Amino acid sequence: MPGTDDRCGFVPDGSEVADKGVTCCWRPVWADREHCIWHASIGEKSWELLEPHASSLGDRLDGAKLRGASLSRTDLFAGCTLIGADFTGATCIETDFSGADLRWTEFNDCNLTGANYAHATLEDTTFVRADLRDADFRRARLYRTVFADAHVNSQTAFDKELVYETRMRNATDAGTKTELGEAAAWTYRRLDRLLRQNAVAKRRHRFYTRAHDVRRRLAWVNDNYLKALKLEGSRWVMRYGVSPWRVLAVSGLLVLVSAFLYPLTGGIQETAGQTTLTYTIEEPTSPVLWHVSRTYVKSLYFSVVTYATLGYGDIQPVGLWARFLAGLETILGSLLIAILVFVLTRSVE
Prior knowledge:
Layout lengths: L46 H4 L75 E3 L17 E3 L14 H8 L3 H24 L3 H21 L3 H14 L5 H18 L6 E5 L2 E5 L9 H19 L7 E3 L2 H29 L1
Parallel strand pairs: 1-2
Antiparallel strand pairs: 3-4, 3-5
């Protein structure tokens, strides 16, 4: 809708945001400019200049031109709609953007230290070379948000569980779950990359594992059982590749279970010179305690040697099932050792 002589008439491109549509600014023109103060192409604006023209709650400031503006420590934008606004080069230290709709907005080359984006909608927003140290992004919507060469620190606040995952958990429709899950997984991966680039290693592992958790649940929702089982195995064995302690715990469990089963599946046989001793428990509820103890000590030793594929040859499994168990433990032991090396290498990198 075109403006009149005393009205702004600025029509931003709102075609990307279907739920908002296109709006026409009907604010009075500012001074002798063609548009209102929000859409006028002038030099650096300040919050003192903008404050008398502040937007009321629910009003739209789509396409606002705030390049290079000095907007630190102001709450002018809290709860506002600024779709497609341009904050390039602006200084917004500790500025309150909480609850604002900032889709398709540009925060490139901005100083946003301590800025508050809690509950804001930042989908398709760009933060290129932006300083986001100490900023607050809790409960913000960050799907398709671009963080390129952005700076964060350990005090930059992100949710442990993104709003998309929370909504996915409460959704009942499979299509809705898939849509929200894909948004959550994408955002977790983006945050993982952002924190990795800024050497915030401890927190980035959380986002890495949550992305895989969401993908695992999506696989079950979409009946992709092969992928779901693969991710379940990765989760329990190595926490998706970030936990060497979990690999060690699974390895220890394999050794102990195998040691318990060897005497029950045919036993093991030890050769010392001309003497051959067989360790087995034919009736597990009745043998003498010392015999049981000795048998399981030998079995534990054999299980450790078999897991590590050392192959000393002093003790051998007896019977088909004990040999099958030994072969299986050898294969799983080799696999777990390889996984442990992979996880340790990845953690160092």
